[in-house]
Specification:
alpha+beta; globular
């Protein structure tokens, strides 16, 4: 996979908006032929993952959020790395009417797949992938 962008920002309220904008700009510059709906889905998922990092980890307590954009093998992959110490591993909640927890359900529905990876340094990583045929020629 080719890295087409990375950004590291302080974890505060505007971080999700700023990273969402950065990801959208980098994907458009990559000329993948994304339609507005697909780009909107990707941006919404990025917004949710970054907002979760700020709300539920040390990233929102004076820490930072790093986002990596990769393309290749027909996939766009966005990884969001937080500063760790989340109380629980990110997951889709089963209770439909529960308070909160709807964001990851959207991520699950809109993306091809998503998941989490623990890192040896204690930081958390949540990633999301979208199938994008124009990314096939990238390795």
């Amino acid at each position: 996979m080719d890295i087409i962008g990375t950004i590291n920002m302080a974890g505060h309220a505007a971080t999700a908006r700023d990273i969402r904008r950065f990801v959208g700009q980098r994907l458009m510059a990559a000329d993948l032929g994304l339609d507005a709906e697909t780009l909107g889905d990707i941006e919404l998922c990025v917004d949710e993952l970054v907002a979760n990092a700020v709300a539920h980890t040390f990233s929102g307590c004076g820490g930072r959020v790093t986002t990596l954009i990769e393309i290749g093998c027909g996939v766009v992959r966005i990884s969001v790395v937080d500063d760790g110490a989340a109380q629980t591993k990110p997951h889709v909640r089963t209770e439909l009417l529960g308070e909160g927890g709807r964001g990851l359900r959207l991520v699950e529905e809109l993306s091809s797949r998503w998941g989490t990876d623990g890192r040896p340094d204690g930081r958390g990583e949540v990633w999301v992938e979208f199938r994008v045929p124009a990314a096939l020629h990238r390795s």
